[in-house]
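In this supplementary section we document a worked example of the pipeline. Step one takes a protein sequence of length 767 as its only input; no multiple sequence alignment statistics are reported here. Step two produces a three-dimensional model, which step three serialises into structure tokens for compact storage. The input and output of this example are shown verbatim.
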Amino acid sequence: HALQVLLIFAKEDNQSDGFWWACDRAGYRCNIARTRESALECFLDKHQEIIVIDHRNSRYFDAEDICRSIRATKPSEHTVILAVVPRISADQEETSVLPLLNAGFNRQFMENSSITACYNELVQIEHGEVRSQFKLRACNAVFTALDHCQEAIEITSEDHVIQYVNPAFERMMGYHKRELIGKELTELPKSDKNCADLLDTINTFIKKGKEWQGVYYARRKSGDSIQQHVKITPVTGQGGKIRHFVSLKRLHCTNENNKQVLYRVPCSDVQRLQYFPLLFESHSFRCKNRRKDSTDIKSITSQSSDAPSLQTRRYSSMARIHSMTIEAPITKVINIINAAQENSPITVAEALDRVLEILRTTELYSPQLGTKDEDPHTSDLVGGLMTDGLRRLSGNEYVFSKKMNLSHSHLSVPNTISDVPPCITQLLDHEESWDFNIFELEAVTNKRPLVYLGLKVFGRFGVSEFLNCSEATLRAWLQLIEANYHSSNSYHNSTHAADVLHATAFFLGKERVKGSLDHLDEVAALIAATIHDVDHPGRTNSFLCNAGSELAVLYNDTAVLESHHTALAFQLTTKDSKCNIFKNIDRNHYRTLRQAIIDMVLATEMTKHFEHVNKFVNSINKPMASEETSSHSEGSDCECTANVKNFPDNQTLIKRMMIKCADVANPCRPLELCIEWAGRISEEYFAQTDEEKRQGLPVVMPVFDRNTCSIPKSQISFIDYFITDMFDAWDAFAHLPVLMQHLANNYKHWKTLDELKCKSLRLPSEN
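The serialised model returned by step three reads:
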């Protein structure tokens, strides 16, 4: 059929005329839309293959918004969208194309009203992207062919992870495809009727890129063993490497004289498999998050006659996958559920099916956004805080401008806690209160609150005595750590570290927390709170990964900052004996303490937020509630905390939850402190967005644009999605009525501002 093109231009001009006549010359059908609404309506009606959007002037409409709206529809999956951008003068620098790509455009076209130039652009798109999209759309036909194929077909990755099975395979083996997709072959029950060398034989063949066919026993879901005739074809792809294995299976029968009859695979069905490279390019089979390269078909129909001689080969890796006895706990759980399904009523079996489907997902602890998915504030917070960034899209690199600060002699601190100036002493007299004002301490200490608060808190918890270090060493260490926080950051500076230390100390003072932890746990928690953001650059993990920073490369884009904070803190501590607070404790104590500190700091990384919270609820809250109910609240506190102490894993969960809550406790502080913290974190996110735009990097949190951001909305989203459930769980354990009251009041405050359409707060720099 004739190619269809949609032109979206608010006003008719030479450029829109150029594309119109270019379409006429090329024989394309062309429609023109003047508004966002009419454009969307026209596209949903006609499903044009090419869309051209005027991106030269934002006065009439937002081209990127129109593009995103179209991309949000299902039909746009195979549509090419072109942005017409203004021509630049010779002395102007060309802008990055990344913002356009992020908005959903495929290409940009520099303003040129020449009909020939427009014609050439459209024809190139047709012969490039559009034809590729036509091929991808043909995949539906391939799936239809596979669904009606009589042979059972199973496709696995090169790692033997099942990526596709057809209905004939489901009928033969008794499984539903959702029970198989994403599973490794090692996870499926094995038949014990195969000879020991058979799987080694198969493995040897297919690893060399040769086709294998023969008789094989498989175990159905019911437990019965069936004899199959199997043909396995390796599929090579990019670089000549094997990327997939295609298995065709038919039941193996015997004739009346007990002679084996092998079913010949019809040529037509083999030929259908030649579409598989196309199939795998267009459908993202996410098995263990490995990106699969495209495949070619040169080995699909390769033949081999060496099968009989290979029965004598050594039993090796592939052979062992069907005889392994070591099972992961999740595999055992799934097997138990599968067994329970066999004799269960249909309603129970269906419910267990849903359970199995959930258990087989990789994100067991991350909730679905549901209706919140439409809220850009929530989406941006989740994307910005719970991912380690997109793939690197730029050659730009972000390098820390601040070098490690190993010097601490230039800072003036008291010789002992008794030497603290009176104004600071008076403030610190109230540090055990939750409503303690950390910003007042920041002001009177000239932005060095961590040293003073640290000396007071560490003294109260006997940290020097536990570590067997002098107060002078502890003081030098606190000074060194604080010197390596960036005072230029509006949020992630030593005041934030002091605030988290204060919250941690407050939590450690609660009876149930105190009764659940040992002295070593308390010391580890206070140290972890002190160092948890040291040398923070004021940018998120996503930013560092997108920018290809040295730290992101060093830590493989995984928990980049949290790994850096702990590594640097220990490096700084052990580098100089004058600051080494660990120098006098024995090796075993040090290893235990170090592991606890690392574990807590890594727990502040947000990608595992829901995992930590759910584990705490299931392992601490629920058992404790059951014990309290069964004992009718008589002596329950003692019994519950004693039980927690008997399980080190539970102590770990409590420490993780404690530092997580301390790290993001801002919404639970008194309103004036909550507002100040909200302004500071927003300013830091604004600065990141500004830099992402300057460097042409993906903008990971677009709502944090200083010109348009609604701070109340961002706070509401953060509280709804991250804070409420976590602090409900922590309050149920630690009993924190003051915090929960502040949280309710602050949430009401943000809601009121939002309803009044207040778009921003006055930031600290404006006061």
